[in-house]
């Protein structure tokens, strides 16, 4: 594809160590965690060619070792493995730019992340087990549902309907 490979940080020399890649719910924007710099790179998608263009304000700040990303409606959540936090962002529906949510990063030790198809719930793996959270559709705030469920460990989560 023309323009590939796509730079994650303009002018950066070195490996940014991109992690998981996610597409927003509209199919207009792509995000990836940059493990080496503790940031999130955001790209707009050319609908006719699929080519990526780095967003003007990208990269966006995240925590240490952003390993897992998931979108839910107009929100993006990022698991910061070395911080034991989950960062939450509102996605600008026009530009794709990220704005950190109030109270973010959340003191939730997470690994893999998943949401349900409605975007109402977020699930994460952590040291305490599998955790479920309800997602406030206006603010993006996370509220724990019950206690963590013990498990033997997981590196990937997915929601099957």
Contiguous runs where pLDDT drops below 50 for at least 5 residues: none
Q: What fraction strand?
A: 35-45%
Structural class: mainly beta
CATH class of the domain at 18-114, anyone? Answer: Mainly Beta
CATH architecture assignment name of the domain at 18-114 = Beta Barrel
List the secondary-structure elements in sequence, H or E: EEEEEEEEEEEEE
Number of helices: 0
The description of the largest β-sheet is: 5 strands, antiparallel
Helix content: under 10%
Total DSSP E strands = 13
CATH topology of the domain at 18-114: Thrombin, subunit H
Distance between the termini: 33 Å
- The Rg value, from CA coordinates, equals 15 Å
Give the rounded overall mean pLDDT. 84
**Oligomer category:** single chain
Rough shape? globular
